Structure formats: structure tokens, C-alpha cells
Amino acid sequence: xxxxxxxxxxxxxxxxxxxxxxxxxxxxxxxxxxxxxxxxxxxxxxxxxxxxxxxxxxxxxxxxxxxxxxxxxxxxxxxxxxxxxxxxxxxxxxxxxxxxxxxxxxxxxxxxxxxxxxxxxxxxxxxxxxxxxxxxxxxxxxxxxxxxxxxxxxxxxxxxxxxxxxxxxxxxxxxxxxxxxxxxxxxxxxxxxxxxxxxxxxxxxxxxxxxxxxxxxxxxxxxxxxxxxxxxxxxxxxxxxxxxxxxxxxxxxxxxxxxxxxxxxxxxxxxxxxxxxxxxxxxxxxxxxxxxxxxxxxxxxxxxxxxxxxxxxxxxxxxxxxxxxxxxxxxxxxxxxxxxxxxxxxxxxxxxxxxxxxxxxxxx
Length: 364
Description:
CATH architecture of the largest domain: 3-Layer(bba) Sandwich
Shape: globular
Order of helices and strands: EHEHHEEEHEHEEEEEHEEEEHEEEEHHHH
Strand order of the largest sheet: 5-4-13-14-15-12-16-19
Radius of gyration: 21 Å
Strand content: 25-35%
Structural class: alpha+beta
Number of strands: 19
């Protein structure tokens, strides 16, 4: 049973992440919910790194033996998952209020909430806390059980969604003396763009003219012309890294943003959540078929192996492409030297490609 505090319309329309790793796309297909993604998703065989007015293409397929990424919005994945769950007769409760979890340190976990004016309680075998960084599951764990690791970055991303055909067939990551910029897309008609900004910036400080001027400046490179269009969405995203260990307390298992956050530079948030749930689903399947706790007991350790590898990659991409407030000329030139190495060394390029397209999915 799925308990959701938002409406179905809200979760199916909120534009968020959009880059699926090779393994994530394959898992959706294997699970029977990847048909629309195969028809509508934008398959990319690489990305471009832009610095000092030059563009360098990273050919993922060639570097990884055929692996690639798919641009398909998180809200579209949610639509497909909800539709499949409803069609299968599964229970999805929307707009639940006053949700609370209890008893997960015993043999009788429970979820209590109100919905449609009625007070409800679900008696559970297990609870999967997939309720995000601001959800109720992680804060419900007693003090002293979890160790929290966190790093705040001294900048944020100003993100926009523009009604204009993307100016590039692939994502462009730009390191510029004025700050990072990223050109992405959500569909053949919608362009997603990001600018590094101050962590306390508000969207009101960025009128359209200023946004486009800054994007043109940071993305300028040989042969590249940015297309402008009406901006239909604008937001500021804080940048942080976060991990909670272990990802379990009794019969409560944390997954996705409830357990970890990565800076979005490496496009890993949704993919890391999918990897968690794949491990947890296999553990549940093993328990109900054999009554063995082995995979459940190993869930946290198995997931955290991947989490920390992805944390490193996301931190590395962030550190290589962004300007830090206390950087001096040495730091900027060091970044350029690193980008030169990544774009000229096959070993370095292969490492980036392997991480970006996704590390192997784990079960145990």
C-alpha cells in the first residue's frame, strides 16, 4: 500500500529530475513500465563539457561499450508507476494528512493518517520510508540510531523551464569564470537550463532578461547559439550532500531522499532512489518466498556502498565545474587543468562515462 500526502495531479505534474541512467531505464522496461519511456524518452549517447570557449564531447557509448542515458522527466516516470499500480488493483492513497509511523522497532509496525475525513491505520509487516528529505520517516527514528553526514555548498542552482526547442542534442555542462551553467531538456519542445547562483538568491532577483544574458555568457562556445523562449517555470535549488546511516531501524527501511541527498550536478538523485528500491524489493521478495532475513539485514550496507560511490562522483562533478566564493586564480586554473585531463585522457573520460551512465545495480 502506498500512502502519499500530495494529490495525484501534483506528483504527476511537478517537473523535477529527468536523466535516467542506463540501468534505471532497463529496470523500468524489465518491470513492465517502460513502454512510454521507450516511445517518448530522448536517448543520449553522450554529454558535452564546455570550458574556455571550447566544447568537448564525451561519447558514452564508445567509452562504456554501449551504455547511454535517457532524458525522461521524473513526473513521467511517476505517471507510469501510478498507472501501473492502479491498473494492477494496488492501493494508492492520495492526499493523506497527519501521517505518522510507529511500532517499527517491534513486530507490529503501523502507519496512521487521515484521508477523506476518516482516521485510518495500516498494520504493516514492514514500512518503506520513501518520503523524501522532509518526510516523517527519518525523523521518527529514535535519537542515537542514525549517524548523519552532511555538507552544504556555498552556491545554489537557478533552474528554468523554457518553451523552446533545445539548442543542443545533448546536455552541455559549462565551467565559466562567472559560474557553472547547464543546458538540458525535458522534451523536444521544452528546454531545461540551470545557472549557478548565490545560495540566498530568490527568483525575483532574476528577471528573464538577466537570465538569458547570463546563460548566453556562460554557455558561449564555438558554433553554439542558445535559443530563447518563454520561461514557464523558475526556481532556486540549494546544493547539499547528505547521508543517514544506517538506512534502517527495525522494520523501517529508508530509501531515496529520505536517506541521502546528492548535489544535482551528476544527475543521480532519482537514479540512486531507484537503485535503493531495487535492493529493497529483492530483499522483500526473498523474505516472502523463503522467510529469510538475510537480504533485509544486508539492505543498508548494500545500498550504502553505492550511495557513497555516487556521493563521490556528484561531489567531484560539482567541484570541477562550479566557482567557489573563496576560489582564487590558482583554483580556477586547477579546474581547467582537470577538465583538460578529463577531455584528453581516455582513462579519465571512461571513469566519467561509467559513473554518469550508472554503476552496476547491486542486490547484495
